[in-house]
Specification:
Length: 233
Amino acid sequence: MAAVLLAGALVMGSCANNGGQKNDANVNENPQEEKVEVKNVEGRKNFNDQAVITPLPAIMIATYDENENPDVMMAAWGGQCGPKHICFNLSAHKTTENIRLKKAFTVSFATKGDIVQSDYFGIVSANDVPDKVKKAGFTVTKSPNVDAPIVNEYKLTLECKVVKMDEDGNGGARVVGEVINMSADESILDAEGKIDLGKLQPVIFDSSKNTYRVVGEKVGDAWGSGKAIQEKG
């Protein structure tokens, strides 16, 4: 079973709040449900249904088209949804079409050292620039496990097959992929052979400021730091 190293979340739409008055700005609307009036939380600034969820990984999704031309796009609306599964939402993109066709993709992560190229992959569509990978100065190797490219310049890559694809009716879809293999460049491994995020320096997307931030220093131990309270009895 492949080990998966991924953090993330899903972000929904945004809307501004306007004081305590009842108007379209503080009414949540689900197209399948009735409108629900939103009540302000006292003592806080209220943003209605604007969602700032963190961390949002800068996920780099690589695919092949029908001519085996590689494409890479950045996506932030995704994350790990099981021991070896990743889920993300895509609107109508060339990547979405490629995933439908190939039923496979690879996932890597934008880092401090490649943020210019990674952001470029999120700005430009392969529908307009078919050779965008080459233009960015990146190269690919065909995955030996799935019908998708591995971007050589990204040091951590998950090779995935599609296990579920829920179409949204507008050309987009929610995709669930199963990790078949994870590979890493030895330069990002620690002395025990594990992934070292301090060496990888992955970035997260800050949706509040529309910026990228490097994952920071260690602040505690998972399933360990909380024992200081637990042991008080």
